[in-house]
């Protein structure tokens, strides 16, 4: 029987070969957010279970069956966050930072959902999210869409398209809900079990079903669009107009309802064909009711979340950069002290250069092998115990080994660096 511990199913290590791609993406996300005037916020990973039930909605995939919920030692019910919006609003209210003011915030980190693991769907996954508070009107959603579009552009992602819809205001949704329930009741015998169960509690979510067998019934169901309130309809028309004016292509998808209850008015998703069923890489919309629902003063709000793993599988992978630029070779054990001293000096004087010093001895041949594997372009060989004389040997491309005074090494390597 194997005794070595394993990670939890659906929760993955990111190994050193893959972290450069993550870092590149995280840099792009951070810089894009900053370019749009967004500030970072960091929330705890664990929150009170009630927060998610109150904000995401009781009758949703997440709250019904996907949350990692447990009682802590005090008997409080806690949950590993399945998404970031609820915790973000909670933090903003707790610290009074969205009171009578506009706020643009972003966050990134792990989220947890107990789903069936498959490509693009994990139990620990990562999101980058942005939330804006205190700004009403469709221009904000356009700015959010622009921000996402500029990210795709920066990351060289072409195969992605925008789908939008409007969910209207709560009153319009309530009117539509009544006729929808009536319609679905009339076809209950043709629905699947899940749809029948949700029919009364959350009929809009029935429309979101992916079961091909019930699609014809859903296609013919009363459309929310026919029950929209005037303001939402006008805002949606404005959104479409602005997108047209900006040359951002989109498709109106009346079936787009999103899996969380807190949305109203505009909802949108960026989807790709290249990731199979897990094609949504970014999802968001307006959620004007949530702040008040969580006990704050009514505050317009909108945001989106990007699934980082899905985005990563679309973005091109950065070239392998190795892990060192300079490798210090120590031909004799007595020169190790000089080598460590010199290596540390180089790290200070050659800003941005990665310097690795050979440790644990080894033959010259073994050390050069390590130097090669480190990806370094240059080896520095310590020639005496005092570390006064060194040789510089290019490990890639042209160039001869040359012997120099250690004091001249820094400027020589700096010159190489800029050549
Ligand atoms: P889906 O319909 O794929 O289940 P969702 O509507 O549940 O998505 P959201 O709650 O809107 O997803 O989360 C925003 C984004 O986070 C998704 O568009 C997706 O890119 C990513 N995401 C959601 N769940 C997972 C998961 N289990 N594993 C990896 N990424 C995920
Ligand atoms: Mg889901």
Strand order of the largest sheet: 1-5-6-11-10-9-7-8
Mean pLDDT: 94
Q: Mind telling me the CATH class of the largest domain? A: Alpha Beta
- The helix/strand class is alpha+beta
List segments where confidence is low: pLDDT < 50 over at least 5 consecutive residues. none
- DSSP, total strands: 16
CATH fold-type name of the largest domain: BirA Bifunctional Protein, domain 2
Number of individual domains: 2
Bound molecules: adenosine-5'-triphosphate, magnesium ion
Helix content: 25-40%
| Rg of Cα set | 28 Å
Cα-to-Cα separation, first versus last residue: 56 Å
Helix tally equals 15
Per CATH, the architecture of the largest domain is 2-Layer Sandwich
- Which term fits the overall shape? elongated
Beta-strand residue fraction: 15-25%
Binding site for L-histidine: 83-85, 113, 127, 131, 258, 262-263
Family: Belongs to the class-II aminoacyl-tRNA synthetase family.
GO molecular function, one term: histidine-tRNA ligase activity
Subcellular location: Cytoplasm
């Amino acid at each position: 029987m194997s005794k070595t511990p394993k990670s939890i199913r659906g929760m993955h290590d990111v190994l050193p070969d893959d972290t450069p791609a993550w870092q590149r993406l995280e840099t792009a996300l951070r810089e894009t957010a900053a370019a749009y005037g967004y500030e970072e916020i960091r929330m705890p990973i664990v929150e009170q279970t009630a927060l998610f039930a109150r904000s995401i909605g009781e009758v949703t995939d997440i709250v019904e069956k996907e949350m990692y919920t447990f009682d802590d030692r005090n008997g409080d019910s806690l949950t590993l966050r399945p998404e970031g919006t609820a915790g973000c609003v909670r933090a903003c209210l707790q610290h009074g930072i969205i009171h009578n003011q506009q706020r643009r915030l972003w966050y990134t980190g792990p989220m947890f959902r107990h789903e069936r693991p498959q490509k693009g769907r994990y139990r620990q996954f990562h999101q980058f999210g942005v939330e804006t508070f205190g700004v009403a009107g469709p221009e904000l959603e356009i700015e959010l869409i622009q921000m996402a579009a500029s990210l795709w552009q920066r990351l060289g992602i072409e195969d992605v398209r925008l789908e939008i819809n409007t969910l209207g205001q709560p009153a319009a949704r309530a009117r539509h809900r009544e006729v929808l329930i009536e319609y679905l009741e009339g076809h209950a015998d043709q629905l699947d079990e899940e749809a029948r169960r949700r029919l009364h509690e959350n009929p809009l979510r029935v429309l979101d079903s992916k079961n091909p067998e019930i699609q014809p019934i859903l296609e013919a169901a009363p459309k929310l669009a026919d029950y929209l309130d005037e303001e939402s309809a006008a805002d949606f028309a404005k959104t479409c107009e602005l997108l047209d004016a900006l040359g951002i292509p989109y498709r109106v998808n009346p079936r787009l309802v999103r899996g969380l209850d807190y949305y109203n008015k505009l909802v949108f998703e960026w989807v790709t064909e290249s990731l199979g069923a897990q094609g949504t890489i970014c999802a968001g919309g307006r959620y004007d009711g949530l702040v008040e629902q969580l006990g704050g003063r009514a505050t317009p709000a909108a945001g989106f979340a990007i699934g980082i793993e899905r985005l990563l599988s679309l973005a091109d992978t950065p070239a392998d950069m190795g892990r060192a630029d300079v490798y210090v070779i120590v031909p004799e054990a007595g020169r190790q002290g000089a080598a460590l001293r010199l290596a540390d000096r180089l790290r200070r004087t050659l800003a941005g250069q990665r310097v690795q010093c050979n440790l644990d001895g080894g033959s010259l041949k073994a050390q050069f092998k390590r130097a090669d594997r480190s990806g370094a372009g240059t080896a520095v060989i310590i020639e005496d115990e005092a570390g006064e004389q060194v040789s510089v040997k290019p490990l890639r491309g042209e160039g001869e080994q040359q012997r120099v005074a250690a004091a001249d090494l820094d400027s020589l390597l700096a010159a190489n660096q800029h050549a």
